Each structure stands twice: as C-alpha cells, then as structure tokens.
Amino acid sequence: MKQINAPAGTQAVLRALRLLKRFTPQEPNLSLGELSSALELTKTTTHRLLAALESEGLVARDAMRNTYRLGPTVIALGSQALLTSDLRAATRPTLEALAFESRETTTLEVLVGDQILVFDGVAGLHRVAASLDIGTRWPAHATSTGKCFLAHATNSTRDQLLRPPLTRFTDNTLHLDGLHDSLDSVKKLGYAVAREELELGYVAVAAEFRGPMGDVEGALSIGGPVSRFTPEKVSSLGERLRAAADELTTRRQES
Q1: Which residue from 79, 148, 151, 171 lies 20 to 30 Å from 2 (Cα-Cα)?
Q2: Per CATH, which fold does 85-254 belong to?
Q3: How far is Cα of residue 253 from the mean position of the Cα atoms in its chain?
Q4: Nearest 5°: phi and psi at 63?
Q5: Across the strands, what pairs with 221?
Q6: Rounded CA separation 51/63 (Å)
Q7: Residue extents of the structural domains in the chain
Q8: DSSP state at residue 203
Q9: 11-75 in CATH: which number?
Q10: How far apart (Å, rounded) are the C-alpha atoms in residues 144 and 237?
Q11: What is the pLDDT at residue 6?
Q12: ω before 165 within 30° of 0 (cis)?
C-alpha cells in the first residue's frame, strides 16, 4: 500500500474525488453542510464542486430534501471498471471454486482509502446465505478482509487507517487494543476472522494475496451465518483461503 503523492495543481480534482468518496451505503444522502463539514471546506467551495459533479451526472441533487447522492454516471463507470478489470478476471475462477466447495458466499475485496470495497463475489448455494452486495464499502477495522490489509500495512499506514474513534457496529466490534492483538493473530495464522464484528449473526474469514509488485492487492473472503461457522469450520475455511490466496499470488506475480 504505497502512498502516492498527487501532482501539483490538482487540488480541485482531489477535493471533488473526496466528495464522491464521502457517500457510503450507511450515508447515501448528504446535505451541503454535512459535506462541507466532513471535508473541512467552505459551503461556497463545496457547492461549486457539487455543481460541477452534478453537471456530469456524478452526483444528483434531491431538491425536496436538499441533499445529494451519487449519480448515474458513477454507476456506469463502476460497471465499466468491473467488467474490464484485470483483477476481476484473474480472481473470478478462484471465487467460483471457493463458493462451490464451501457453498458459502465468497467475495473479492480491496482497500480504497480507509475503507474496504466489495469488488466482486459469488453468491452462496445455501438458502440462508450472506448477501452479495458488490460495491458496498465498510471500515477496514470491522471486516476480515480489512484485517488482512491492516496486518500487513506499515505502522504509519495502519495508524492512519485506525484513527479513533473507531465505529462500533456491534458489541463484538474490537476496540483498538483488541484489534492490534487480532492483527498479530492474522500474521501467525495466515488468515483473518471477523466474528459478528460488523453485523450480529455474520461471520467472515479472509486471506490476502499480493500483486506483481509484492504489495497486498486484495483479499478473498468467505462469509455466512454464525450458526454454520463453527470454530472448526472457520479453521478449515481459513486454511483453504490461505492456500487459494497463495496460489493467486503466484499467478499474479508470474503474469
């Protein structure tokens, strides 16, 4: 996760992109005031950026509620990126194999900023299975895939991603001290587990793989209901994911 400095003269572009990233599944509609406050910009500057984004269909304004949301152009761009992604093509057979073997929902997830993005996935075969919400983003600290990225991040990057306060989604969401212990476990085991830390009743197991440059490129995850994810099953899935991720790393670095 190498830090890339933005070129000079791109401040307006960066601000516009940060506005777009501020919208999440938890907060899909935001007011001008909320956006300006979140980005620490004046309302005048924020309004000007939103007007430019709206003109290109990247955001849409709800005149009745006086809020903004992501526009149709973002959906089109996201679909195009997904369909043409080299990463998606490279990992799709692995996701399908893992879903067939485990009968559980499998996902490919990547780190975008300080959040985990569900980039692709295959739905489970059980009648009661984890939902497949491609495009959903979650804070890294509450997910198994996020723990994979955090465990192998530099200290400075980890500190940046774990700036308090960390949102607690359930009583099982780890505090900072517990999270650091959990990340040590990820390194030892080779896989990460999030047991009801994001949502009650939901468990996920994940393992990271590396890209051509040796950096953590993504993480494979298998998730489902806590009733089926016994400690024995979690351990078995973790080992299977570790093997699949190692194989994927080899392929990515040889390509």
Answers
A1: 79
A2: Beta-Lactamase (3.30.450)
A3: 23
A4: -65, -30
A5: 107, 206
A6: 13
A7: 11-75, 85-254
A8: E
A9: 1.10.10.10
A10: 13
A11: 47
A12: yes
In this structure, how many other beta carbons lie within 10 angstroms of the beta carbon of residue 61?
16
- How high is the pLDDT of residue 3? 46
Tokens at 247, concatenated = 């194989």
pTM: 0.69
Contact 220, 106 (CB under 8 A): yes
- Rounded CA-CA distance 139/19 in Å is 17
The residues, ordered by sequence, that sit 6+ positions from 131 with a Cβ below 8 Å of its Cβ are 105
31 DSSP β-pair partners: 67
Q: Report which DSSP code applies to 64.
A: T
Question: What pLDDT, on the 0 to 100 scale, is given for residue 83?
Answer: 52
> What sections of the chain are H helices per DSSP?
11-22, 32-39, 43-55, 72-84, 86-102, 144-151, 155-161, 176-189, 231-254
Q: What is the mean pLDDT of the chain?
A: 88
Q: Could you read off the pLDDT of 200-222 as tens digits, one per residue?
A: 999 999 999 998 888 899 999 99
* φ, ψ of residue 121 in degrees (nearest 5): 180, 170
**Separation between Cα atoms, residue 75 and residue 207, nearest integer Å:** 28
85-254: same fold as 11-75? no
Instruction: Give bridge partners of residue 164 from the DSSP assignment.
Output: none
User: Tens digits of per-residue pLDDT, 123-158?
Assistant: 988 876 677 788 888 889 999 999 999 999 988 888
- φ, ψ of residue 221 to 5 degrees: the values are -135, 150
Whether the Cβ atoms of residue 248 and residue 240 lie closer than 8 Å to each other: no
